[in-house]
UniProtKB/TrEMBL annotation:
Keywords: Metal-binding, Oxidoreductase, Zinc. This is Zinc-type alcohol dehydrogenase-like protein. The keyword Transmembrane helix does not apply. The lineage of its organism: Bacteria, Bacillati, Bacillota, Bacilli, Bacillales. Residues 11-341 form the Enoyl reductase (ER) domain. GO terms for molecular function: oxidoreductase activity. Gene3D superfamilies: Medium-chain alcohol dehydrogenases, catalytic domain, NAD(P)-binding Rossmann-like Domain.
Amino acid sequence: MIIAKARAVDGPDQQFRSAEIKRRDLDTNDVLIEIKYAGICHSDIHTAHGEWGPVNYPLVPGHEIAGIVTDVGTGVSNYKVGDRVGVGCMVDSCGECDNCRKGEEQYCLKGNIPTYAGVDKYGEPTQGGYSTHIVVVEDFIVRIPDNIALDAAAPLLCAGITTYSPLHHWGAGPGKKVAVVGMGGLGHMAVKIAHAMGAEVTVLSQSLSKKEDGLQFGADHYFATSEPETFEKLAGTFDLMINTVSANIDINAYFSLLTLDGTLVNVGAPAEPLAVNVFSLIGHRRSFAGSMIGGIRETQEMLDFCAEHDIAPNIEVISADQIDEAYKRVLASDVKYRFVIDISTM
Ligand code: NAP
Ligand code: ZN
């Protein structure tokens, strides 16, 4: 049994506190990782606040994990002590269903095992990356390329793959007009990745306050959704839209910006249902889709793509004592563009 230091929360309205959590002894195919950095995803906040449904507290969030291998089980073949590795939103799946066999473990028909707020195959609650160590089966670990720093690598494990996967799946590339709605953690990665894929990229943000950053990340155009003319000007423009907004928006207004056969993919996961007016879809054979993170193979592909194209998130590194403050700032859309916890401060 390994005792890890962690930051845990005891209820929806509670502040984070220091905690000690148990990590299992290494099974044959397990890897022990000393966590160096953990990103703060808006999903951590939705979960910690109980917005997506009941949660078993105490909860240690964190599914953007970057660290170093410090021990391996006797059957581990792909990793050794000292390797730079990452763990994202899931730590296991059945491995046998059609979706797992296709490498789409996130859509495991028996349900993937989330990195935190889940129950592992030993019946123990899973606890995430706001902690000094984690034990994960080697099939759910990815390798961090040498030219990506560990602090910058962390957000790629969720924000990176969650935007790379739909951009790749729906064919973002040369000749495609892609809009990114909301430029927070996910949104700013979507801009960088879509640009590197060769698409013409437009940001739709609440205001123009981050316009210079957006253009620097690779956006070709930047509009404020608070200005009604934006919707008139851009009507029927986009082949693909990636909605990263964490709150409920008037989604029908955004459908009107799609071309014939255009697709709006929701990756944002607000707790309340979105009200869809089907007429805004049927008029131009538009599609409304969703997408959840990406498979393990695709996550490695995304990391290698980022390494090759020199893509990294813009991060603000914080200490473990600043998690509550960071949550407040994320909720106020005051994040540039991902908070990353320096685990050595734990
Ligand atoms: P984030 O950093 O807070 O970014 C969300 C952005 O949405 C904000 O920066 C803001 O962008 C915009 N926004 C926020 N409130 C808004 C409002 N009321 N109206 C309009 N725009 C608003 O969050 P994130 O970490 O990127 O996560 C975004 C969402 O994706 C969350 O719901 C999260 O749970 C979800 N998520 C889903 C997956 C998946 O697998 N599908 C994975 C990770 C996260 P501007 O300031 O530019 O307007
Ligand atoms: Zn996430």
